[in-house]
Amino acid sequence: MRLIPSRRPGLPKDADRRNILLAAMAAPVWAGLPGGAVMAQSAGGLQRIAFGSCINQALPQPIWAAVLAARPELFIFGGDNVYASEQPWSRDKLQAAYAQLAANTGFARLRQAVPHLAIWDDNDYGLNDGGADFVHRQASKDAFMDFWQLPADDERRSRGGLHHARSFGPLGQRVQVILLDVRWSRSPWRATDQRNAPGRERYLPDADPAKTLLGAAQWQWLDAQLREPADLRLIVSGIQVVADGHGWECWANLPSERQRLYDLIGSTGARGVVFLSGDRHIGAFYREAGSAARPVPYPLVDCTASGMTHAWKGAAEAGPNRIGPLYDEPHFGMLDIDWAERRVVMTLRDLAGRPQRALTLALADLGPDL
Fold first, then answer.
1. Rounded Cα–Cα distance for residues 308 and 343 (Å)
2. Rounded to an integer, what distance in angstroms lies between the CA atom of residue 336 and that of residue 179?
3. How far are the Cα atoms of 116, 117, 321, 330, 367 from residue 169, in angstroms, in the given order?
């Protein structure tokens, strides 16, 4: 694994956004996903996947031009896909937020042209930093399923939460996308004793063994998913998994649950794991190398791509396991998979589609030493 310098190919300064969007709609697509886009059959695996989070439906969304120009074969919505967590909550307000997003021309074209998967986070769930205590979670789930056009027989309609998984491509080039629901069953966080103090901004680590992040049913489901064959596994979490050094929402706030996740990856023999996260309005890469106190089956990488419409300008925080600096402008993430070379290049891209941060991973490194 190595940090590589950013390239800045960009778009022509006089690029016509409308033409970019229309040209992108001609990109090949494959079948079997909800929404207007369908996937064309292909003998090979996915080679380009885009992802992002934190889309305020009331703000300008020029980023869709760059996403479509990049011609991804799949787009992953990582949560906070709309903002509707203001209290008192109502389904009408959530549906109005979804309607406003749907009316955005760029979003509508991506939704039609590019196969996509989606999971929620707190702002489309309906309660800022909310968990299992959100009393309107079922009504919010119903609105999510309607907006994302889940089929009548979709498994998410008959179980608690919205976690789901899909696999693409033949063995040897198979990508599995596992989308975790970190809201539906999550226990309450432990509140900070020093609000806004660096590293203790909102929450503190909680060692209570009775607390859960995923809930028993989702943990059992995840065990089964990790045993499925795949060459690259993208585990999508609305909140950061690997990041340490801050007191905002993250898996580190329930350290026993995070260690359970790491241990499960090891016990199931799941190779190829890469985490994709959002929530923070920043972009960054993180790497957990493991230690005696925090063992991991192999080094685990988390790519946070958060802030498609708005980012935390001037963000600064400790990053003991961060690779490189934070990115604090609107952006989206991209994975380019080179199956011949067996490597993945992850980039964080700006509003013009230019890579601003990049990290290369060898698939051989995403597994225990043999």
1. 26
2. 19
3. 15, 16, 32, 31, 20
Sign of the alpha-carbon torsion through 231, 40, 117, 325:
positive
Mean pLDDT by 10 residues, the chain (370 residues): 33 36 33 46 82 98 98 98 98 98 98 98 98 98 98 97 98 98 98 97 98 98 98 98 98 98 98 98 98 97 98 96 98 98 98 98 90
Residue 171 amino acid letter: L
E-state strands within the chain: 2-3, 48-52, 74-77, 116-118, 164-168, 175-179, 190-191, 203-204, 232-237, 273-277, 283-288, 300-305, 322-327, 332-338, 343-349, 355-362
Give how far Cα 118 sits from Cα of 90, 150, 211, 271, 322, Å. 21, 11, 26, 23, 26
What are the two backbone dihedrals, phi and then psi, of residue 252, each rounded to the nearest 5 degrees? -65, -20
- Write down the pLDDT at residue 33: 56
- The CB-side HSE value for 221 (13 A sphere, CA atoms) comes to 18
User: Tokens at residue 27, please?
Assistant: 């990109």
Taking alpha carbons only, the member of 41, 217, 249 closest to residue 130 is 249
Q: Enter the pTM of the model.
A: 0.91
Q: Which pLDDT belongs to residue 113?
A: 97
Tell me, what's the pLDDT at 13?
38
Token pair for residue 160? 């608690």
Nearest alpha carbon to residue 80 among 33, 136, 124, 142? 124
Instruction: Report residue 129 as tokens.
Output: 């930093």
Type of residue numbered 142 = D
How much is the pLDDT for 369?
A: 75
CA dihedral sign of residues 84, 85, 86, 92: positive
Other Cβ atoms closer than 10 A to 206: 17
Q: List the structure tokens of 1.
A: 């694994």
Cα distance between residue 35 and residue 33, in whole Å: 7
Tokens of residue 78, six digits:
């990582």
Distance CA 114, CA 16 (A): 20
pLDDT at 44: 84
